[in-house]
Q: What sequence folds into this?
């Protein structure tokens, strides 16, 4: 059984047949009609046609915070993906309804760790390392993984606060199990001074540890879940080498979901928020190559015409699952609310939500 209530119906043809101008006019009308009943958070990776209607924009951490703070709106129409909408449902009140306009909007990374795999891994790892591990999960994870972490003394984190959260984790236990993105874990751990040979990788498919030949049980400080972002893994060292050869004056900034090798060869790395702020504060005329999702890169290009901005990977396309919510689905969601026939609601099981909230609130102590 899914953790969220899959009430999705097929998008009615009338929304597919409307022109872009008609859809925009309808969205403006419905937003005005619903007024304070409606709150629309939008992730930076969303399409321009949708993000223009957001009441708040941000990365995962920022949207988690505004979701927790907003207790007034009866309907939260989340322009993001499943795990973000789940977090919003966990943090909002029982009298509030969270809607995801298109249920296909997901995150392949979040799907790389499920509860059964995690419980099996925990059993195996605690048999090896004993009671020396605290589990930590990137917010790009399902509600049941967040709940597992909450039950076992861990917390959630984002790319914005990963360093602070890992510092907190190492005050709790000697070792960290980092779910589900190995690259963010490796990059942050290395930044904290943990050498690569003190990191192991847990393969949830083979149920085995992958360790450096010089690693011993006692050496291990970080156990990385073998998951990744399919978008950020497409930025490679050869892209950097080509830029260095052809445009040595172009600065390179990447997201820490990129591989360790890519991060090491770049000029800078950081969360979505940091990337945006770096570009905003960069001098006019500066040249940048950015290694992150294309909707955001294109928006930065549009918003900063005085700067020369390109994607680190010239053949990059937007994240297919993050990019699902379009104007027809968005207008349909608002229309259903206005007509009292709410579809595509996200409703996390109460017990799971309780444990997941513990993990999230531990993270909020360090915002």
A:
């Amino acid at each position: 059984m899914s953790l969220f209530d899959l009430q999705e119906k097929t998008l009615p043809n009338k929304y597919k047949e409307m022109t872009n101008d008609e859809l925009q006019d309808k969205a403006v009308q419905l937003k005005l009609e619903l007024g304070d009943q409606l709150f629309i958070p939008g992730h930076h990776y969303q399409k321009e046609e949708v993000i223009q209607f957001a009441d708040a924009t941000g990365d995962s951490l920022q949207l988690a915070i505004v979701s927790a703070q907003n207790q007034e709106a009866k309907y939260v129409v989340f322009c993001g993906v499943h795990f973000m909408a789940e977090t919003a449902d966990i943090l909002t009140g029982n009298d509030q309804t969270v809607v995801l306009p298109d249920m296909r909007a997901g995150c392949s990374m979040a799907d790389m760790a499920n509860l059964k795999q995690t419980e099996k891994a925990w059993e195996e790892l605690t048999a090896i390392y004993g009671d020396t591990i605290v589990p930590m999960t990137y917010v790009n994870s399902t509600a049941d993984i967040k709940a597992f972490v909450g039950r076992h003394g861990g917390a959630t984190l984002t790319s914005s606060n990963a360093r602070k959260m890992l510092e907190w984790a190492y005050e709790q236990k000697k070792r960290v199990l980092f779910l589900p993105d190995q690259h963010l874990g490796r990059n942050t751990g290395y930044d904290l001074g943990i050498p690569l040979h003190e990191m192991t990788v847990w393969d949830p498919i083979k149920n085995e540890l992958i360790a450096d030949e010089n690693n011993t049980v006692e050496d291990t400080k970080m156990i990385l879940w073998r998951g990744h972002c399919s978008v950020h893994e497409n930025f490679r060292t050869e892209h950097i080498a080509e830029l260095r050869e052809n445009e040595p004056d172009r600065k390179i900034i990447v997201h820490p979901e990129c591989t360790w090798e890519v991060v090491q060869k770049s000029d800078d790395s950081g969360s979505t928020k940091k990337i945006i702020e770096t570009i905003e504060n960069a001098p006019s005329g500066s040249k940048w190559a950015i290694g992150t999702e294309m909707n955001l890169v294109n928006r930065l290009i549009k918003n900063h015409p005085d700067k020369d901005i390109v994607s680190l990977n010239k053949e990059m396309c937007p994240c297919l699952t993050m990019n699902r919510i379009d104007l027809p689905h968005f207008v349909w969601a608002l229309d259903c609310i206005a007509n009292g026939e709410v579809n595509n609601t996200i409703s996390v099981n109460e017990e799971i939500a309780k444990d997941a909230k513990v993990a999230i609130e531990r993270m909020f102590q360090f915002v």
Q: What stands out?
A: The chain is about 40% helix and 15% strand. The CA atoms of residues 288 and 309 lie 5 Å apart.
